[in-house]
Design a protein that fits this description.
Layout (H helix, E strand, L loop, with lengths): L1 E8 L3 H12 L5 E4 L28 H15 L3 E2 L3 E5 L4 E6 L3 E12 L3 E3 L8 E2 L5 E3 H11 L6 E5 L3 H12 L3 E7 L8 H8 L6 E3 L1 E7 L6 E6 L12 E4 L2 E4 L3 E3 L2 H5 L24 E3 L10 H21 L8 E5 L3 E5 L2 E2 L5 E7 L3 E10 L2 E11 L5 E5 L1 H5 L5 E7 L2
Parallel strand pairs: 1-2, 1-6, 2-3, 6-18, 8-13, 9-16, 10-11, 10-16, 11-12, 19-26
Antiparallel strand pairs: 4-5, 5-6, 7-17, 13-14, 14-15, 19-21, 20-22, 22-25, 23-24, 23-26
Length: about 425
């Protein structure tokens, strides 16, 4: 069996960032495996701008952002296999994959970085009555048809869910000549970035129907319309508010799910909220030497943050290969306090600077973000507004972590 120092599964922004980082930190024996025929993952079909403002201080399209990292991979001569599907990862870090040229093959790795990204939640995950006519697509599929294949999915569109891809497709379909009737969102707030609400909906006078959902799909061969209704505080449709909306296309933007089948196969502990692995401050999972980063770990709002996190994973994997498993100096678990939906990492196992990423569970105004060590507040920051769509970050210094007295610290939102 062939042996490689580091295998990276996924050639999107996370995988490429991790590979470049690992190479810069001393690991040259790297192999990137990706099932697509090109690098870049989903960025290849994201032809709109808005990428790279944090990472490169310039506004880039998706393909331009991907090329920034692909060029580094090529210039550094990092080996890769495209059109290669990884089918299994074991606890002992044996990777089984298949492609047309090599058939089925196995590689023993010293360390593995999981960077498989995420997928869209489809119609099958939703409880909507009606038949299954043509004209129902996930927003990402519609984006692929329009931007890559040059096909128009439809002319009269309703979008269910206000995730960023759905908001961007509302604008894209409008620019291509379609009429976007509305965007329906079950929650009382949008799940997309504020800038996308402004640029993709408000600028084109597309209504955002909060607290609304689709209760029935009409049409036999092709979608002919939908029935929407307002929902109550328990998210149940209010029957008397139902109204028919004529359309020939429904785009679904109802959430993203980390691609964690390989993670599960390696018996890695998962976070029930993120759907990704439970990791420490080095992006290391519950299986020693297996790391996770990017949207397979938790769904990010900006690809810039994916790259930042993945560079940490690459550095951590390199350190693991060169120095072996670090002894755990601390073992601090992060507890979810009032108003916090999840945190990444979920554990701190060393006395070093840590960046905590977290999302809140609702829209809160004029609040204080706090971290408590028992009853003692060790961190606090005022925020005028926090929303679930935008990820928040906190940096804990080495000194702060050294001074933590308990094995559990609590992150919460106060004063709402």
């Amino acid at each position: 069996m062939k042996t490689v120092d580091l295998i990276i599964i996924g050639g999107g922004p996370a995988g490429m960032s991790a590979a470049v980082s690992a190479h810069h930190h001393g690991i040259k024996d790297i192999l990137i495996l990706d099932r697509d025929s090109t690098f870049g993952g989903i960025l290849g079909q994201c032809i709109h701008n808005g990428f790279g403002l944090h990472r490169f201080k310039e506004e880039l399209t998706g393909p331009e952002y991907a090329w920034k990292y692909e060029k580094q991979v090529l210039d550094l001569g990092i080996p890769f296999k495209l059109n290669t599907m990884v089918v299994d990862v074991t606890e002992s870090k044996v990777v089984t994959a298949v492609n047309e040229a090599d058939g089925i093959f196995q590689i023993q790795a010293k360390a593995i970085i999981l960077a498989m990204g995420c997928r869209e939640r489809s119609l099958g995950a939703l409880n909507i009555s009606g038949t299954r006519p043509a004209g129902i697509y996930t927003a990402g599929t519609a984006q692929y048809y329009v931007n890559i294949k040059g096909y128009m999915p439809g002319r009269k569109v309703v979008i269910l869910g206000s995730g960023d891809i759905g908001l961007i497709m509302a604008r894209r379909m409008t620019l291509e000549g379609a009429k976007v009737e509305m965007v329906c969102e079950l929650m009382p707030y949008s799940s997309g970035l504020t800038r996308n609400i402004v640029q993709c909906l408000n600028d084109f006078n597309i209504p955002l129907m909060l607290n609304h959902t689709i209760v029935k799909i009409h049409g036999k061969e092709r979608v002919t319309g939908i029935t929407i209704a307002k929902v109550d505080e328990n998210k149940k449709p209010i029957v008397e508010t139902a109204q028919f909306v004529e359309c020939d296309t429904i785009l679904l933007s109802v959430g993203l799910i980390p691609e964690n089948e390989l993670t599960i196969g390696a018996s890695i502990q998962l976070d029930p909220v993120t759907g990704g692995a439970v990791v420490n401050q080095n992006c290391e999972t519950s299986q020693s030497g297996i790391f996770a980063c990017g949207n397979v770990l938790h769904v990010h709002d900006l690809v810039d943050y994916v790259s930042e996190e993945s560079e940490l994973a690459g550095k951590s994997a390199a350190n693991y290969i060169l120095a072996g498993k670090k002894k755990e100096i601390r073992h601090i678990n992060l507890k979810l306090g009032n108003g916090v939906r999840y945190t990444v990492p979920q554990q701190i196992t060393a006395e070093e600077e840590v960046t905590l990423y977290f999302r809140v569970a609702d829209v809160y105004k004029n609040v204080i973000i706090t971290i408590k060590d028992g009853n003692e507040v060790i961190y606090k920051r005022k925020k005028q507004k926090v929303i679930p769509a935008e990820m928040e970050m906190i940096k804990l210094t080495t000194e702060m972590i050294k001074n933590i007295k308990n094995n559990i610290i609590t992150l919460g939102v106060e004063g709402r």
